[in-house]
């Protein structure tokens, strides 16, 4: 997909790895000048260098999306270096590190940690960057939610709550910012194959694990998505052609949330 983003200043939070990295490459390949905001200094610097080596414009700024002071400094720096900000991709997110457990066994530390990044981070970054975007309208904001924010999933209470919050926050932002020239939408990925999820899907022999086969039985396409497919959805939403799309939650899940039937 090719769209006209030449010279547009863009921020991708969590852009050092995975889906965020794919989004960075998609934006740069279509002419955008991109700033990666991440706490992974090594990976962020490496990704920015890869883009620069390929002839694109990309910078890395280390900042915690949930830290207002760090984000204020980052936004000011980026707006200066990129000569304005027209695109914001709120992608940074985490999920439970430990074994998934029911809500009555869920630790308060895990709850706070996930909500802080996945929901509060979207609020903090948006609140900080939007004043810069209002100087460079029209603008686009895409928040990365999840199917976990649209349908109930077990044993992920904080992640589900955070991503549901992102979905409705997106709609609220669209109502407020649309009249001011900034369109706000979200992408809700389903199961997506990244470096971090490969062990979930594949065993040592390279075949799908038993858990993966059970999961994939719910997906009409019978496979996980890849990061480039998520990035393509984001690219559509920031394209000039998507000028009448506002407040949408675009699911990219192989049909998972469309519902499925069983043989029994």
Describe the overall structure.
The chain has 264 residues and is of the alpha/beta class. It has a single domain, classed as NAD(P)-binding Rossmann-like Domain (Rossmann fold), CATH 3.40.50. The protein has helices spanning 18-29, 41-53, 68-81, 108-133, 157-177, 198-201, 210-216, 227-238; strands at residues 9-13, 33-38, 58-62, 87-90, 139-144, 182-189, 192-193, 225-226, 249-252. A seven-stranded parallel beta sheet has the order 3-2-1-4-5-6-9, with helices on both faces. A two-stranded parallel sheet has the order 7-8. Strand 4, helix 4 (108-133) and strand 5 form a beta-alpha-beta unit. Helix 3 (68-81) packs parallel to helix 4 and helix 4 (108-133) runs parallel beside helix 5 (157-177). The relative contact order is 0.14. The mean pLDDT is 93.
Question: What's the quick description here?
Answer:
By secondary structure, this protein is of the alpha/beta class. The protein has helices at 18-29, 41-53, 68-81, 108-133, 157-177, 198-201, 210-216, 227-238, and strands spanning 9-13, 33-38, 58-62, 87-90, 139-144, 182-189, 192-193, 225-226, 249-252.
In terms of topology, how is this protein built?
Blueprint lengths: L8 E5 L4 H12 L3 E6 L2 H13 L4 E5 L5 H14 L5 E4 L17 H26 L5 E6 L12 H21 L4 E8 L2 E2 L4 H4 L8 H7 L8 E2 H12 L10 E4 L12
Parallel strand pairs: 1-2, 1-4, 2-3, 4-5, 5-6, 6-9, 7-8
Helix pairs in contact: 1-8, 3-4, 4-5
């Amino acid at each position: 997909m090719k769209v006209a983003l030449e010279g547009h200043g863009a921020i991708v939070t969590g852009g050092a790895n995975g889906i965020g990295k794919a989004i960075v490459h998609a934006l740069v390949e279509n002419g955008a000048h991109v700033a990666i905001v991440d706490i992974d200094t090594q990976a962020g610097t490496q990704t920015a260098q890869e883009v620069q080596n390929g002839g694109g414009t990309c910078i890395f700024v280390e900042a915690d999306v949930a830290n207002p002071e760090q984000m204020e400094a980052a936004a000011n720096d980026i707006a200066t270096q990129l000569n304005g900000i027209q695109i914001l991709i709120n992608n940074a997110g985490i999920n439970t590190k430990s074994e998934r457990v029911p809500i009555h066994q869920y630790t308060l530390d895990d709850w706070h940690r996930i909500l802080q990044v996945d929901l509060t981070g979207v609020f903090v970054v948006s609140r900080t960057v939007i004043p810069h975007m209002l100087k460079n309208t029209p603008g686009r904001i895409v928040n990365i939610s999840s199917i976990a924010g649209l349908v109930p999933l077990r044993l992920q209470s904080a992640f589900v709550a955070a991503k549901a919050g992102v979905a409705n926050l997106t709609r609220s932002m669209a109502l407020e910012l649309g009249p001011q020239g900034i369109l706000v939408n979200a992408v809700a990925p389903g199961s997506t194959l990244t470096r971090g999820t490969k062990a979930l899907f594949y065993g040592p022999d390279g075949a799908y694990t038993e858990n993966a086969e059970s999961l994939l039985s719910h997906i009409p396409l019978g496979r996980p998505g890849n990061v480039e497919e998520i990035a393509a959805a984001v690219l559509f939403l920031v394209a000039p052609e998507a000028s009448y799309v506002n407040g949408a939650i675009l699911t990219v899940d192989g049909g998972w949330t469309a519902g499925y039937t069983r043989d029994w």
